[in-house]
Automatic annotation (TrEMBL):
Sequence positions that bind substrate: 61, 66
Higher taxonomy: Bacteria, Pseudomonadati, Pseudomonadota, Gammaproteobacteria, Oceanospirillales
Protein name: 5-formyltetrahydrofolate cyclo-ligase
Gene Ontology molecular function: 5-formyltetrahydrofolate cyclo-ligase activity; ATP binding; metal ion binding
Membership in a protein family: Belongs to the 5-formyltetrahydrofolate cyclo-ligase family.
NCBIfam families given in the database record: MTHFS_bact
Species of provenance: Alcanivorax nanhaiticus
Length: 202
């Protein structure tokens, strides 16, 4: 893991520019391109997981052009898994917790307008999850990802360093979001993932 130094003003600007460019490209995908990419995600996740446990999976609901994971959950490797969604932890600002979720459960928007479970269904400790599927704006082959800039996932995942058990971390997105190693300026808080899973947009 490279030693992470504070970002310079030029690096911060580079990250912001890259985030704007890739978010715009993601929003410009057609409905057909999104659907085809989503259908390819299930087999790609199954290959990435191989024979590892996947009984308890944390995922995200697609927002602002993110790769939609819902079709992937019907894959034979995944459709028996219990699924969990992130919600903003009211007791630890800036952190996430994960609640059990099913499609029939009611949802409500959080402070950012992103849907999260409305019912106080049981959650699962971060370390007790088998897999966490993380959204990303950009990522590199070294396993570093760049999110939307709020730092929620990075702060939450930093807690895993103190645990003897940890879930498998997979960043998910479109092929074009994967940049060359070294092209993504690393911030001191960036948490690497175990693997990148991509789906083409064509």
């Amino acid at each position: 893991m490279p030693e992470q130094q504070p970002l310079s003003p030029a690096q911060r600007q580079q990250r912001q520019q890259l985030r704007r460019q890739l978010r715009q490209r993601r929003r410009q995908l057609t409905a057909g391109q999104r659907r085809r990419a989503s259908l390819r995600t299930g087999p790609a996740l199954a290959r990435a997981l191989q024979h590892r446990p996947a009984h308890h999976i944390a995922l995200y609901l697609a927002n602002e052009g993110e790769l939609d994971l819902m079709p992937a959950m019907s894959h034979p490797r995944l459709h028996h898994s219990s699924t969990y969604l992130p919600w903003l932890d009211p007791l630890r600002p800036g952190h996430l917790r994960f609640r059990l979720w099913q499609t029939r459960h009611p949802m409500r928007p959080n402070q950012y307008g992103i849907a999260e479970p409305a019912l106080l269904k049981r959650g699962r400790a971060l370390w007790a999850l088998d897999v966490i599927l993380l959204p990303a704006v950009a990522f590199d082959r070294a396993g570093y990802r760049m999110g939307m800039g709020g730092g929620y996932y990075d702060r939450t995942l930093a807690d895993l360093a103190r645990r003897p058990r940890r879930p498998r971390l997979l960043a998910v997105g479109y092929d074009f979001q994967c940049v060359e190693e070294g092209a993504l300026p690393l911030a001191p808080w960036d948490q690497p993932v175990d693997q990148i899973v991509t789906a083409g947009s064509e």
